[in-house]
Amino acid sequence: MFARYKKNGFTLIEFSVVALIMGILVSATLVGYRNGQKRYILSGATQEFIAEIRNVQNMAMQGTEIKDVCEEDILALRCYGYGIYIDIGEDDTSYLIFAERNSDNDNEYIEGDSDDILIGAVSLPTNVKLEYSLGKVSIYFKSPWPTGYIDGEQNTTNAVITLKYEGTSLTKTVSVSSAGLIE
């Protein structure tokens, strides 16, 4: 009487269920990928920041000369140390690399001081910000010893700088001691 036809495919409901499951899996993967990408960017910025601190530390130990900025043979251009300066109030997305051309023992970057020569500015990746509890910090290494100074003082206080990915709870912390230890 009633003939049964053999089914050779999927029903609309079966297809919809499979598409829904695939959509959930794809969106979960995308969210994980984006969070992983943010962690990667923050980690890279932190490693670059640590590398720059080590770079200025090495420049101080080696007495690095920079043409027309720091030259050992010319007394007026002799550099006594190198450092990194952060001013959160002015710009929380970059930091300055400087050289000190005076042995007056201020051992820090002072805005407007003609003996503090800017070598460069390093910008952080988009959405990565610097945080420091006091707002400003100068990390300075004096030549030829790797003597470190935090805000002009050589003491036991560490400078603890936090890098944060904006809009998330992702943070990385960098600690620099006046003994030159960078963690």
Describe this protein with a few key phrases.
183 residues; alpha+beta; minor pseudopilin epsh fold; five-stranded antiparallel β-sheet; 1 helix; rod-shaped
Main pleated-sheet profile: 5 strands, antiparallel
- The shape is rod-shaped
Query: What fraction of the residues are assigned to beta strands by DSSP?
Result: 25-35%
The number of distinct structural domains comes to: 1
| Distance N to C terminus | 84 Å
Q: What's the overall average pLDDT, rounded?
A: 85
Continuous helix count: 1
Order of SSEs? HEEEEEEEE
| Tally of DSSP β-strands | 8
CATH architecture: 3-Layer(bab) Sandwich
CATH topology: minor pseudopilin epsh fold
In the sheet with the most strands, the strands line up as 3-2-1-5-6
CATH class: Alpha Beta
Stretches where pLDDT falls below 50 for ≥5 residues? none
Provide the helix percentage: 25-40%
Q: What integer value in Å does the Rg equal?
A: 27 Å
From the helix content, strand content and strand pairing, which structural class follows? alpha+beta
What would a concise description of this structure say?
This protein is α+β, with helices and mostly antiparallel strands and 183 residues long.
Task: Explain how this protein is built.
The protein has about 180 residues and is an alpha+beta fold. The protein has a single domain, classed as minor pseudopilin epsh fold. The chain contains 1 helix and 8 strands; from the N terminus they run αββββββββ. The chain has one helix at about 10-60, and strands at about 80-85, 95-100, 115-125, 130, 135-140, 145-150, 160-165, 170-175. The strands form 2 sheets. It has a 5-stranded antiparallel sheet, with helices on one face. The protein has a 3-stranded antiparallel sheet with strand order 4-7-8, with helices on one face. It is rod-shaped. It starts with 11 loop residues before the first helix and ends in a 7-residue tail after the last strand.
